[in-house]
Structure formats: structure tokens, C-alpha cells
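Researcher: Here's a chain I'd like modeled. Treat it as a single chain, no partners, no ligands.
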Amino acid sequence: MTGAMFAAFSKRDRDPLATQNLLPLDDETILAQMQTGSGEALAELFDRYQNLVYHIALKILRNNEDAEDVTQNVFLEIFRAAWQYNPARGKVKTWLLQYAYHRSINRKQQLQRYYNNFIEVDPQQLSVYDANDNAHSFNSQRLVEQVLEILNPKQKQVLNLACFEGLSFKEIAEILGESVDNVRHYYYRSLYKLRLFLADLQTQVEKSCDETSPDAAVARAGVMQ
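Model: Modeled as a single isolated chain. C-alpha cells:
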């Protein structure tokens, strides 16, 4: 991360005594002080978790500048929304990482919409566009949607974070507030369900191909005679 990011919170610009007093406090107490508008408390939370938040953002966005921007925005939003934190719903760290995940996903979707809207398409490419390719793409997308529909919400979320966002079991556990063992269970259970679904699908496809093959048509013609 660049040294410019959150320069106002660097240790040399902070009250040494206030910083020393904050060090032994747990995250919940730090957040309680943020709820009173303490910038020193925000700076302390930033020192503790800036690298972790940045790492999550970078994994999803795969761009240093975007990840830095999201990291800064996450902490600013946390500062403004500190009063919304409910200890009964999980630890501060989990709440913070969920913020980081959702803001990173939002930024990724915004960037995708931007490129989809503004990237120019060569008319010559459109003239040679094959409609069959479009149909194949649609069918593939629909197949993925059907596969994911057989998973419960936790399994779907874990599979998405692991396979599509590239996060580790430990990172997923921290975001979801689950144990690593639970995340691992959701992941392998979802893979097991997918294998069963795809095996059944393959059987259906093979059966359909057998019924529509030329040999099958000849056999049916012979029976009709």
C-alpha cells in the first residue's frame, strides 16, 4: 500500500499518549470510542486491520489502486457507521471484513458495468458474430445458475468466495464469522452436490443422445414396419 493513504493517521501525526492508551484496548472498546467521534480510535483500528482489509480488496479487485481506494472508503464508512455495530451479531473484525467484502464486490460490479457501457465494439466484429456462440454462452450461463440453485445459501456463498473470488478458507471464515472447519465443510459439501448434479446431467444427456441417434431411428423404423 502507498504511504500516502491515510497519511493523517500515521503514528508521527498522532498524540503519542493517546496512541499508547489505545494499544491495550480490545476492538469493541476501540469501536465504542469511535462512536463518540474519536479520530484516534479510528486510526488505531486502521493500524490493526488495514493490511487485512487491503488484502481482501486486492484479491477481489486485482488492482492496487482500486484496492487502496476501497480500503480507505471502508474505514471512513466504518467511522460514520460505528453506531450501527452490534456486538451480539459478531466481532468487530468480522463486521469490518464483511464491510470490506461487500464494498469490494460493489466496486467490482461498478467497474464491470463501466467497461460494458463504454468499451467500443468494432462493427466488423459484429458482422461476423455467430449467433450459435451466443446461444452456447446463454446455455452455459443457465447451466451454472441451475448448478448453484441446488446449494443452500452458505454453500453457495463459500463456493463463490473460494472459486470465483480466490479467497482462502481462513479469509472466508473471517468474512462470514464462521470457523475454518465449518467453511471447509460447506465447501466440500457443495462440491459433492455439484458432482452428483453433473453426473446425473451427463446421464440424461447420454440417454437423450442415444434416443436421437441414427441407429435408434433405424431401430424405431424397423419396429414400426
